[in-house]
Each structure stands twice: as C-alpha cells, then as structure tokens.
Write a structure and sequence with these properties.
The chain is α/β, with parallel strands linked by helices and 317 residues long. 63% of the residues lie in helices and 8% in strands.
Length: 317
C-alpha cells in the first residue's frame, strides 16, 4: 500500500527559509505531504489552527537553528516550543534536525549575527535546545544533510509505526481502512479481556489475604498461589505482546500500562514467595499482609483507570 504521510514542519521563520524549503522538497521527493504554518503570523488566534494541523499530521518535524522565536505572552515560551511540546503531548512521532555549530557559523558569515543567533532570550533557547537534544535528533551541516536526514528518518518511522496516512479513496483502500479499524477494535477488546483477567486474579488474592478463601492444607495453599502467579505472568506476557505488536495504536496507554505491569509482576512474585515459604499453621505476618494489600490497591486503581480508558476508546471506534 502506497501511504502518504503528512509531515508538519516547524521552525523559526526568517533565519531558516532555505532550510525549511529543503525540508519541504525532501518530504515531497519522498512521496509525502509537507504541512506548516509559516504563512501565518504567530499569535494566540493561530494556535488552535496550528494545533489542529498537528493533530491531523502523522509526523512532527522541527528544524532548530540558533533562534528561539517569537514569544507567546501568557506562557513566556516561543510559539515554536509550544508547537513542539504540543506534538510531544499527542504521543505522535517527533524528530528534529538541529543545525550544527559549523552550519550556524556559515550562516553568520552570510547573515547578521542577530539574524542567526538568539539575542533576546538565550537562556530560554538553551533550555528548549536541551529538551530537543534529549529526543530523536539529526545534526546537520548543510541543507543537503537535512534532505538526507528526512529521507532516512521517514523510512525508519514507516518501518517502526503502523501509520494510517493518506491513501487514494477506492474500493481496495476502503477495504484496507476497514481492516485497520477491525484490527484496532480487536486489539482493544483483547486488551480489556486481559486486564479483566488480572482484575479477577487480584480479587482472588484479596480474598485469600482477607481470609475469605481458606485452603484446607499447606499443599492446597501452595497450589492455589502458584496457579494465581502463573495466571498473572501469562496475562502480563499477553499484554506486553499486544503493546509491542501495536506500538503506534497503543502509545497513549504505554506509560500507565508499563507502570501497572511492573508493579503487578513484582507484587505477584512477592505474594507467591510469601506463601511458598509459609508455615500453614502460623499464617502470614500481618505487616507483610498490609504491604501486599497496599500494593494490590495501587494495582487495582491503575487497572480500573486503564479498563475505563480502553472501554471509552472502544465506544468511540
């Protein structure tokens, strides 16, 4: 399938005209669609429009030179930084090309220093640049490097993410979109099912800790806790498989899901170890039970939020 990605290009304006043009040419040459708001003046009235364009794009690309850009009054941040942080908040693929010191010096020889390097807010520029450098970055020495970086990065992103992109509207592509829709619904349904299985296991553990479930002897107790632990590990494995096979679709759940799985894995092992070394007639130390109960309540809170989120998304599919 020949997908065309919409790539939102963000940069400061007057100092990076040639670099932005090189980026647009590279995106078009790669068979994709460039989008950017350079024709709009920076201002509050334009931020919603810019955000809508970012929402409708598949990839966000920043070109960072030596300037910070026009500052928005309320936040005290530049419009370029606001766009960048908005794209990050949307969990969309974000990459940046950053002009090297060599590139900037060459531009200074052609333009004035004030047109190339930040003079009014150098501290804010450095803070922003540090944030950008902590993410996916390509350092470039000239416009040719920008084109190479764009071709290489887009190729990698297409391999890594399952983009919907833009496709010609015909019967074949309608079938493809339906397949993508069905896959998304099935993924959410499978995720909800595994989360609900974990919920059932947690309820069984809580009842065991509270004394509502009382195995008749040590062998039954060991077998019961062993089965629950194995079920938890199986559910954790299935959820991690779902996340890894559907990385782009599952981005919005990634952080909370990993937090849930990590604490669940640790707590499940702790419960298993506690009961495997237990003297049946003496019982479990109350302080240990209290810690286990606290961890289970944390897991349940994360679990319920994720189930609600998945079910809400499923409703809107």
């Amino acid at each position: 399938m020949n997908k065309k990605l919409q790539v939102f290009v963000s940069s400061t304006y007057t100092d990076l005209k040639e670099e932005r043009q090189a980026a647009v040419e590279a995106i078009l040459d790669a068979g994709h669609i460039p989008a950017g708001m350079e024709l709009f003046k920076a201002g509050k009235s334009q931020m919603q429009t810019i955000q809508k364009w970012i929402d409708e794009s598949d990839v966000y690309m920043l070109i960072l030179g030596g300037r910070y850009g026009s500052i928005e009054e309320d936040s005290g941040l530049s419009y370029t930084e606001l766009e960048y942080k908005y794209a990050l908040s949307k969990n969309m693929p974000v990459f940046s090309v950053v002009l090297s010191e060599t590139f900037l010096k060459e531009k200074i020889n052609i333009l004035k220093l004030s047109d190339v390097m930040e003079q009014k807010a150098p501290d804010k520029y450095q803070t922003f640049k540090s944030l950008v450098m902590s993410k996916i970055v390509c350092m470039v020495d000239d416009c040719k490097d920008i084109k190479i970086a764009i071709h290489s990065t887009l190729d990698n992103l297409i391999t890594e993410y399952d983009f919907i992109g833009w496709i010609r509207n015909n019967s074949k592509n309608r079938a493809i979109r339906e397949k993508i829709y069905i896959n998304h619904v099935t993924t959410l349904q499978n995720l909800i099912s595994e989360l609900e299985n974990i919920e059932l296991n947690l309820n069984n553990i809580s009842e065991l800790i509270d004394g509502k479930i009382k195995p008749s002897n040590t062998i039954d107790l060991l077998a019961y806790t062993s089965v629950i632990h194995k079920q938890n590990m199986k559910n954790i494995g299935k959820i991690r498989t779902i996340l890894s096979k559907n990385r782009f679709e599952m981005q919005k759940y990634e952080n909370e899901m990993q937090k849930l799985l990590n604490i669940l894995e640790k707590t499940s092992l702790q419960i298993f170890s506690t009961y495997q070394s237990l003297d049946y007639y003496k019982g479990v130390d109350v302080s240990i039970l209290n810690v286990l109960t606290i961890n289970i309540n944390i897991i349940k809170s994360l679990l319920f939020n994720l189930i609600d989120l998945c079910k809400t998304d499923l409703t809107y599919c």
